[in-house]
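G.,

No rush on this.
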Amino acid sequence: MILAQKFPELKRDGCHHSGWTEWISDCRKEWLERANLRRNNLPKQNLSFADIVNLNSTEARLPAAATFAGLRLRQSPQGETAWDALVLGDSCLFHLRHDRRTLTAPYSRSEEFTYTPNATLSYPSDSSKDASPVKMGDGQGHYNSAMPGDVFVLATDAMAKWIITSLEKNTPVWGTLLRQDLDFNSLVEQARKDAVLSMENDDVSLVIAMVGLPHPWCLEGTFTPQPKASRPVLPAPVQSL
């Protein structure tokens, strides 16, 4: 949350080593202040298991880890909508264009997702290789200006993998995700129980930015839940005397 809140403070050249290092250092300071404040305000008794884990982790300086995806849209001197983005780890950016082309980064295949993605750490050390983000956009190449109707989707790992899997199965879900009346919690619950396009049970975040109304093709694919079949409950055997 801190990374998202402080992203507007990061300069456009922030993925260069010095800019990123300075910005992420400020984020870490704020994280530590919040962690210490929460630790000091914990009750002395009846701590929950989560409180105990967090307290011990803070005392031992065990690092928390975070992935990240950030997007900036702005008006270029030529009057176009320019964009740039930073993505880190297995949080992903999707750019849906008028020509039906979809940019997917940093991952484009579901098999690329693992349980140990690159991440930035709250307690970096000399022995840890703190990951740096991948910079995208900033006016270089075909995809770096947004046309009216373009859609940008930012998603954390479980949602990102689910979207990429839907593209691999040729059953895109953009039409469902872009619905104005989308019940997000219900969608996640249904997707986790789906027999064909199952979403992993992990925390899920999704942000959608549209440049005007989306292109018609973006609304074509929809998610149709297919719940997993429940096993029938067999009656207990009857023993005769």
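When you get to it, here's the other one too:
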Amino acid sequence: MKQKGFSLIELVVVIAITGILAATAIPKFLNITTNAKESVLLQVKKAVVTVDAMVYGQALLQGVEKEESGSLEVDGTTYPLTYGHLDLEKDTFMHFFETDLNINNLTFDDNNEPLGDIVIYGGEKRYAYDLIPDCRLEVRQDSETGVYKYDMVDNDC
């Protein structure tokens, strides 16, 4: 009587081939995740550049782009500026930039006041005194020109 089914050797060969395919696919999947996180940070950076350009344009129109500590009124709310650029204080910045990512001030002075830089990252909520993840966008503001400087840290994406 002839039995239907696969022999043990055929099953072992199929399992071995499946294992080899899985071993090559998993690293590629992990790399895709890293690339996605890095892409999100790049898009966030572009959004920050756009917000800065819009605010600076309004400052130019109102003639406050050369003031060391000017202000900009938008929809009845006044926002602080440094040489025409929006001050990098988390709460002020959040009015112009809506995201599910976490935005916090990166450094603080002795009185717990923000020092003109922010960090943007995904994941659980963290604060400047906690360990900041190695997958983040840091935005710093030059105190003499108000211009933003960007530093993308993608060691642990």
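Helices lie at 8-62, 90-94. The two ends are 59 Å apart (CA to CA).

Enjoy the weekend,
O.
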